[in-house]
TrEMBL record:
SUPFAM superfamilies: OsmC-like. NCBIfam families: PRK10738.1. It comes from Dongia rigui. This is OsmC family protein. Pfam families: OsmC (PF02566). It comes from the Bacteria.
Amino acid sequence: MKARVTWIENSTFLGESNSGHAVVMAASTTPGGATTAPSPMEYLLLGTGGCTSVDVVMILQKGRNDVRGCECRLEADRATTEPKVFTKINMHFVVTGKNLKPDTVQRAIDLSAEKYCSASIMLGKTAEITHSFEIVEAA
């Protein structure tokens, strides 16, 4: 895997993936200050949510479950001193489908967390990661 990050101006950068996609990212120059784009750490959290969500949906689909939606709501705490790594992350899944069983959804989340999601397994080296979920019955 290859990528490139190029400085645009001030604290704004362009990240380009080897697959030809690009994202703008920016860092605040003051703690909690405004930015023009998500920060690199926000992208790291978003990427982790995306990685695990892909797993959960694919596992449910492979099990022939009628999954119609999946939202992963993430909340994270970071260390107060440098390096400000993630120390706690909660991933709350809202899974929509027809006749989804709680144990099946839990199993998909567990498989992602323990076996498939490289991003969350990597972040689990510094952060306590917890998971919760709710099921919404599709109309």
